[in-house]
Structure formats: C-alpha cells, structure tokens
Amino acid sequence: MPITLKIQRSLEGKQWTQDYSLELEKGMTVLSALIKIKETLDPTLSFTASCRSGICGACAVRVNGNAVLACETPLGDLVKRYQSETLTIAPLANFVVLRDLIVDWKPKYTNLKKIKPALQPKDEFSAAAGCKQSPADFKKYQKNSECILCGSCVSECSKSTANSNDFLEPFVFAKAQKFVADSRDKDVLAHLDPAVKEGLWKCFNCQQCAAKCPKGLNPAEDIEKLRIMTFKKKMSSNAGSDHAQAFYDDIRDTGRLDETKLGFKTEGVKSALRVPFAYRLMKTGKLAPFEKTEVIPEIEKVRTILSAAKEVK
Amino acid sequence: MKYALFPGCVLRGAASEAFLATVKVTEALGIDLVEIPSWTCCGASHLQDVDDLTALAVNARNLAIAESMGLPIMTVCNTCTLQLRRAKESLDTDPALKAKINAILAKSGYEYKGTAEVTHLLWVLASNPQLLEGKVVKPLTGLKAAGFYGCHLLRPPTIMNYEDSLNPQSLEKIIRLLGAEPVNFDFKLKCCGFHAFWTAEKDVMKVTGQTVDSAAKAGAEVVVTPCPLCQLQLDMYQPEGRTAIQTSAELPILHLPQLIGLALGMSKDDLGVKRHISAADKVRS
Amino acid sequence: MDKMNRRTFLKVGAAAGAAVLTSGCFGWFGDNIPAAVRNGTALYDVLIIGSGGAGMRAALEAAKQKGLKVAVMTKMVPTRSATCMAQGGINGAARHTDEKDSPASHAFDTIKGGDYLCDQDAVDFYTERAPEVLWELDYSGIAFNRKDDGRFDQRKMGGSTYSRTAFSADITGHAVLHTMFEQCLKHEIDFISECQLLEIVTAKGKFSGVVAMDMRSGNIMPIPAKSVIVATGGYGRAYWVRTSNPFSSTGDGIAACFNVGIPVKDPEMVQFHPTGLAVNGVLLSEASRGEGAYLLNKDGERFMARYAPKAMELGPRDLVAQAIEKEINEGRGIGEGLSSAVYMDFRHLGRAKIMERLPQVYQLALEFEGVDIAEQPVPIRTSCHYSMGGIDVIDYKTCATKMPGVFAAGECSCISVHGANRLGGNSLVEILVFGKSAGAGAAEYAKSNNYEENKEALQSAVEGWNKKFSEATGRSTGPSIASIRDKMALTMWNNAGVFRTEPGLTQAFADISALQEEYKQCAVGDSSKTFNISFMNYVELGNLLVLAKVIISGAMARKESRGSHSRVDFPKRDDKNFLQHTLITKDGDKLKTEYRPVVVTKYKPEERKY
Lengths: 313, 285, 610
Known about the structure:
The complex is a heterotrimer.
Chain A: E1 2-11, E2 14-23, H1 30-41, E3 60-63, E4 66-69, H2 75-82, E5 86-90, E6 97-99, E7 102-103, H3 106-114, H4 135-142, H5 152-155, H6 158-162, H7 170-181, H8 188-197, H9 208-212, H10 219-232, H11 239-253, H12 259-267, H13 275-284, H14 299-311
Parallel strand pairs in A: 1-5
Antiparallel strand pairs in A: 1-2, 3-4, 3-5, 6-7
Helix pairs in contact in A: 4-7, 7-8, 7-10, 11-12
Chain B: E1 2-6, H1 9-12, H2 16-29, E2 32-35, H3 52-68, E3 73-75, H4 78-93, H5 95-106, E4 118-120, H6 121-127, E5 144-147, H7 170-177, E6 181-182, H8 201-217, E7 222-225, H9 228-236, H10 238-245, E8 253-255, H11 256-263
Parallel strand pairs in B: 1-2, 1-3, 3-4, 5-6, 5-7, 7-8
Chain C: H1 2-23, H2 35-38, E1 44-49, H3 53-62, E2 70-73, E3 90-91, H4 103-113, H5 120-139, E4 154-155, E5 165-166, H6 172-186, E6 190-192, E7 195-203, E8 206-214, E9 220-230, H7 252-259, E10 264-265, E11 270-277, H8 287-290, E12 294-296, H9 317-329, E13 342-345, H10 351-357, H11 359-369, E14 378-387, E15 390-392, E16 406-408, E17 413-414, H12 426-448, H13 455-474, H14 481-495, E18 499-500, H15 502-519, H16 533-557, E19 566-567, H17 575-578, E20 580-587, E21 590-597
Parallel strand pairs in C: 1-2, 1-9, 2-6, 9-16, 15-17, 18-19
Antiparallel strand pairs in C: 3-5, 4-5, 7-8, 8-9, 10-15, 10-20, 11-14, 12-13, 13-14, 20-21
Helix pairs in contact in C: 3-6, 3-12, 4-5, 5-12, 7-16, 10-11, 14-15, 14-16, 15-16
C-alpha cells in the first residue's frame, strides 16, 4: 500500500513540510520508513537513532501530533489507527528543534540536575560492600529506573506546553520519585524539595505522560506519589496541598465536596478577590453560597475508614 | 439496562444542570438509574495527592456499596470514572492490597469483591446505539458540534481502555446519531486545565481560551463534553480564557446529556442551559 | 586559527540569534560544547571519546584528580551509547549467590571461554577488581535485583562455573549506563555532545589532540588535549543488518587510532551472538538461556546435545553460534538464505517467570516478530554482537597504548581479557574496571607529562577535513553511502562471518579494496553544515571500510580455528603457532601483520569442552 509521510522539516531558520511517498512494507516501523526515505529518496532528511530496539531513546518523534518511539512503532498500526494513508511526522514538541526531527536535550539535562539525580546512599552502606535492600523495596522504584530519556512524556505535557518556565519535564519528576522510593537513599527531601519548588503542584493531571511513555512509566502517578510524600514529610503547605487537603477534610466532614468553601480553603484571604467571578456564578444560580452541604447518612462509617487508613503502615 | 449511578460532587453543586439532564435523558432512553446511597466524593485526583491508601479505601467503599446493589456502575464525570476505575484496577490486580483495604473496610462493615464494572454514560450509549433509535425526534441537523473528550476519559489508556485514546470516536458517533455534524479541532483531546486552576491559573486560562478558540476556528457552533469539570472550566472561565489569548469567539459549552436531550425534543430550559455562563442564548431551543 | 574560530563563532551566533527571533522554536543553541572548546582556548588534560560505560567511568575517575580538565565527547548525547543495549548482566565474584566463587574461578572461566587467547595476567587483574565494581555500582544507586538477604542477586550466565552475574531484570546495560550518567551529572562532568570524532593528531610521536565536527554548526574544530581515552565501542556495523549493535557501532575510535599507527589487536575475533532475532539482528539476551530457554531445530530437537552435552544451551557463545549455523547449513533450520533461523523456546518457563525475569525479551519478540514467547517459540539467528578485537592496549594497569597519551578502554580496546570469545556478563564489568584504570592512567600521564603542542598539524587536519567535507557533500553524482555499505556488509557476512575460508577472505579483501575506491567518489547527498547526519554516516562508513580490511587480514593470517574465529580450512586450534595475538598495523597504504605471544601464567591451554 502506498503511503505518504508529511514531515515537518526545518533548517537554519527555514521551516517547511515535505511530503514523501513510499510503499508500506511488512514490518515497517516509523524509523525504518525514515531510514528508507533518507537512503532512497532524500539524504537531507535528518533524525537521530541508534539502538533501533527501544532502549536508547534517540528516535522519539511525533506522528499526527502524538509522540512515539519511531523504532518500535509499526506504520501499519498508525495507518489503521488514524484510518489514513497520510501521516504527519514532526519533531517532539516542547523541545528546541535543531534540524528536522533532531531536538536539543541540553536544557533537559539542566532541569534533571535540579532534583539531584544521583543516589545519596545511607551512612550504613559503603562503596566497599554495597547496599542492602529487600526485593520488595527494589520493586518500589524498579519501574522508574527503566526510563530511557526519550522525551515522549514531554511532547504533549499540557503544563509544559502552556508554560515550561516554572515546571520540570515529567521524566524529571519520575526520576525524583525513583530516589524518593529507593530505600537506599538517605535524604528524600534533597530530591523532593526541588521538585516542589520547581512546579510539582502545577501539573495539570492530564495523564498525557502516562499515555505516551513507551516503557510503561507513569510520571503522572509519580507526581502524585511525590505530592503524597510532601504530606508525609509535613512540608510547608501551598495552594496545591491546601486544595488537596480540602478534599480530605470535606470527605471527613460531609462525605462530599463543599464547593463554596473550596476557594477559601485553597487560597485563604486571596479568595476575596474572586468576588466578581463568584457574582457571575451566583447570577445564573451556579453558586449558592448560603446553601449548606448535606452530610451523607453514613458519614460515621466514612470517618471510621479514614481513621483506619491513617493507622495502616 | 440498569445501573448504579455515581453522580459525583459537581452534579450536586455547580453542575447540577448535568444531573438534571442525565436523569431526564436516561429516563427517556429507558436506562434505569439508581443512585448509589451515601456515596462519597471520589477524591477527584486531589484526595489521591494526600494519601494513596485513604483514597483507595474511600473508593473501595463506593465500589462495595454498588456491588451490594448488584448493579454495574455508571459515572457521568471523567475524573470520577478514572478514580473509580483506578481503584478497581489496583484492588483487582493486587490481592495483598485488596486484603489490606478490606481489613479497613471491614471496620465499617463493607467488603470489596470486585464484581461491579465501572462505565461512563458516553460509553454505554456508544456501545448501545440502538437506545437512541426512534428517539431522536428533533435531529440537530446542520449543528456543528465540537466534541471535547476531556483527559480522564481517555488516559491513561491502560485504565481508560474503552477506545483508542489517540483517535477516539465515541463522541463523534453520538453526535452523528443525534443528527449533528461532528467538528474535528486541534484541541479535541487536550486538557481544559480544570485540576490545575489553583496552582497554575494563568496557564489554565490560556488553555481554556485556546480550546474554545480552536473549536470556533474549526467552525463549531457548540462544544459538547462528557465531563462536567471540563464543562465548568470552559463555560465559567470562558471570558478569562478569551482575555488570556486575546480572542473573541464565544461558544456555548454543553454537557453531553444536554445535547442528547435537545435531540430528544427537550427544551433548553428543561435541560438547565440557563445556568450556563457562556453563550447560553446561542443554544438552539 | 583563533581568528577563524571567533569569526565563525560570531557568524554562527548571529545566525542563531536571527533564527531564534524569526522562527520561535526552530532555532539552535550551540551550548552542546563548552565555550572554551568553541572559541579554541580549551586544553584538556584528559579527553575521553565515547560516553558509554567505559567513557563515563573513566571521566569519573580522572575527575577525582583536582584541577584536571576532563571532558567526555560523544557523537550523540550521553545516554544513547551501546552500553544501554547490554541485557544479561555484569560479572564479579562478589559471592552473593555462590560462596564458592572467586576471582580465580572467574579468571579461569574467562580464559577458557576465550579459548586461551586471553592474557592471563590481565585477566587476573580484571577479575580481582570485578567484585568492587559491583559494590560501587550498588553504592552509586544502580537498580540491581535483590536477594532475600538484601544483597544484590547474582545468576549464572553461559560459560561461568558459578553464579556471578548481577543483573537488573534483563536490561542491565541500561541500568549501568544511566547510573554512570547520574554520577556524571552529580560530579558535573563536562560533556562535549554531538561532536563526531574525525581524526587523532600527534606531535613528535605523542598525542596532541583530536579534530572533531560539531554537528550543530558543522564546524570542524581542533580540540587540543594532553591525553585521550578512546572509548568508542565496537565495529559490528561492518556486518550492517546482521548485527545486534546499534547504528553507532562503527569503530570510529579504533580507526582513528589505527590511522596514526597504533595496532589493532585480534580484529578477526568478532563474536557472533547466537540469539539475535532472525528478522533484524536485535539481541535476545543470553539471560534467556540462563533462565532455561531451549534451542530447537526444525525437527523440534534440542540440538545443543550434540555440541555441548553437559552445558547444553549454556555453552559459551561461540560454540552455540557455530552450532546454530551448522544446523542451518545442514538443512535443519527454518526459512531460507539470510533469513534462515532456528527456534528459541520459552514456553516451559511459564508466563509469570517470563514477565518477571525476561520482560524486555518478551517485548522484543512481540514487537519485531509478532511472537508471544509464552505461547510460541521465536525464530532466532546468529548476529555479530561484540568485538573482542580492538585497539592494542599494552599496559593493562593503565590502558595505555604504544603511543604516549593515547589510552583505550571498553569494547574498542583489546587488552586482551576476552581472547577469542567473550563470556556473557564480562563486557559490562570490563568497561568499568578498565574505565577506572584508564581514567587513573590518563590522569597520571597528564599530571606528569608536558603537553606536546602541534598547532600546525591540528590546523592542517582541520583544513583537510574541511576539504573532504566540501568535496564529498558537493558531489551530485556518485555511489551512495548505503550502496557501498550494503556491499561491504554482504561480503563481510558471507566471507568473514561465522565460517571463514582462504578464498572467501581473499574475495572479501578484494571487495573491500574496490569499495574503498568507490568510497572516494561517494556522494553524501547533503551539503548543509547544520547537523549533517549524512556526512557523519559517510565518516563512519570510511572507518568501517578501514576496519573491515583489518578484520579480514587478521582472519586470513590466523590459520587456525579458535573461539569465534572459525576457519573451515583450518578447523583445529593450533597452540603451537597461534597462541599469539594478531597485530595489524597501518603501513603506508598497506597492512602489516605481526604477532605477540599470549601471556600464559597459570593455565596451560586445554581442549575446550562444555
């Protein structure tokens, strides 16, 4: 079957889309198609690739706006998914593009350094004898160690796309969580603190990173785990943690969310500035500030559960 | 068809028009809904940030109550769907965890068995198009509707596996069955920003504006979404969205059951469109 | 030279600025290279070429010397190196699983596994330092699988008497590489990224610097340095598609050393890994056999019973690879021609064990062959996997070569610890043991030697490469890189592959010579200065052609069969004449072949039976 790849190209400031037609062969992946184009149609098409087996992370690109690892993505599957013989290929989003499909990783390493990306082994361990860790504890961070730094999680990250200046890439949070969950590490806060400072609570929870990781990591869940750890470590509160705590308190108090108080619980007195917005809602009846939130009948059973969950280690 | 309904908090509060529309539409289509007694908030991804075991126990309780009703669960909010399905997945695949949670639940007399499936109204209708047969008395002919899915109904695909998260078609299918014309737009599968409003407000207003603008630029007259949180975000904050990116397009944002209700012959007022902030007047009667 | 660099720098900077202003996201930022390199004021004490396990470990060691300027240069970005592809594990007699293990046992297994071509003093040095490398890795945060007692686990790999292979599921290489990268980030090691090595430059017989191309700008730059550690990996891509190696394994550092007169040792010792996916050569970890998978021919027979009755599938790689090729050659394989194969069968292991111990193997078989190994056997075939041969290291304690200032570590080096065949798990530990030695050795050299400046030679080399760039990229007609490369790979696989003969090797030599002529007319097809991957591929191909000839020469001269080198016309091992290392040195336009006796200390060569 003939297919067309529309590739978003760039060179020294010039940008253009170039169409390439080729025959979809059995077993063809996005990478093998790119190689075929480079070797038989256009040697100027530029991309990076190395292991061609999903472990070096060099070949992530966007197809129809979604990041994939080119070497392990069969083109046939994409044709089927999008019901089209024309596919658009572009470099990863949220990266500076160097040429065609090649992107700049240097700024990402700078961000990675912010969360202190190396083990700080506990004092009881030594380089001479290694460390001790139970198999169960190993499993707690093993998945996070499988990140191949491919950048797929970054491309459609909603927060990074809106503004990456006060945020870290999803894989950076996943790396931070790796150390936080590694029982050999002696200083959780060394990784957690910078994560909080660099936007941990600004994640949109859009789950794009979880959906895109070719190795099955879940940075969105790691962000959740890091947030939980800020509570466990009794770190100072912020709008994000206050917002989360408000849900806990509401469930304990009435079983359900008390929308009218949510603003105040999250922002404190600043919520007074939201009066114009609140008025807009009250006009159409969306906000009924004097309506009391009903308490669910079984609230005591809920409270018992909340207490019991707190007791469990 | 009978389901245990998990309404979710906003259907009690800010999005009560969605509850109204859901009840009216399911009744008209012959779907029996029994509200889960004494359900609690699902945590909405925020309780989940406080403590994992607590959030899991809270939702295990919700699931256990539905199980005791002997009914599958229907949700009408994306985030509720994700949190309940996540809880279910964790409990069903980890016997040790399930035992731990059941020990907590036992203190209040509940037991999670894993027998109730969790589905969303959109999925029920997309899988059972015959329910709409003969009921679309006022086809929305010529109405260009942009279906905005909302993140939590699609991702992560391991949990939200009803359809392909990169090219879902369920909303478009329903829109067509209602006689309207689905509009493809760049922001169809993106995030409205609702959950980050308190921590990244400026960014959230930007994406809110971009979403509405994207739909408008693609020719949509209305945006329809299966998630009341997305509806709240795109409706309530639409003016701020416009300001953030300096655009002017104003679009009504409909809850999925509202769009269906209109095609079933119900009026705007029947469906609570009056409660909307943005462009409520632009919705055809 | 400084003026030219500054002018270029400003021109390029202005272009970048303009690009950024006009095109938003589509600009480039030239900070892949430290400013001092860009403006020509850098003088490194230790310059490391290659950011794999050996290169990064060397950098960490060299950087321990306060005040030394150390940098790692890579043609990609750090974590893409071939190290990440190693799967099965990393060896060391840490005795976590087998109390009876010892560095001596590890040494003997290595020497026997290498078919007695290993230098036994070097092997002892290596196996004695292996356990501490494992404990250091653990302390550095590597994701090792653990035992119940909390220590990292060790399993058995082919050719090892005891269980001495520590592992991270079946992606141990990835774990090693990323742990090294984390440590490099922690210790603020300088990386010179996206720079392709072009040439090594000497002065008065000593190392003086390298010439490299900054891929982002296309600038060909001199990088003066007191010492260099070459850690550029192997040359499996001489067989192109029939290799498990990544696209980057093009022997760049070995060719660069060869070109300045450093010998290549035992180049003919190319390991053919038995279990590469038939369809594309991608490796299925030896851990597969370690966990109990069977090898079956088309009749469903576990044919290893006829080749290694005791060890069966856990015989050393060369034995198993040759067994597979024999089965195929004698008609007991499946499929035809280059896609012939035999089966690897995991079904009896059960899905749970497969998913826990071999998740990556499972994924690869599913992705590339469409086979669920819990349900079906998967077709596999021999693939070129590892280069035992490489840059002749003459001092195993420092990794020094015969040229002052040039050191080599990792797969690109030949110490020799692997001899004629490498055991699974021995490469990952080699890169760390010798990365450490080389780092210390080069640092010591830099501290105690003056820099031998040779601005003229560096400049002349830069000019030469600028000319080559213009010519090769300016040609509008001529053979393509891919066409030359595919012909090279075909003759190499057919004539210098698993089984070799004199006429075959002679043909291969002639073929490569002809290809080198064609190469002179090669049309690169891309004349841009910005990120010219095609030109990089052209340089790599040039290196492969040089090394192909070296491999063939070594294979032709070694008239015996030993380890991975199998001469059909000389099927027996000949210790009398060939208990020696092959040394191929550049001699003008020709190749000089010499020999150096293997160092035998404790173990007299015996017949290798498994």
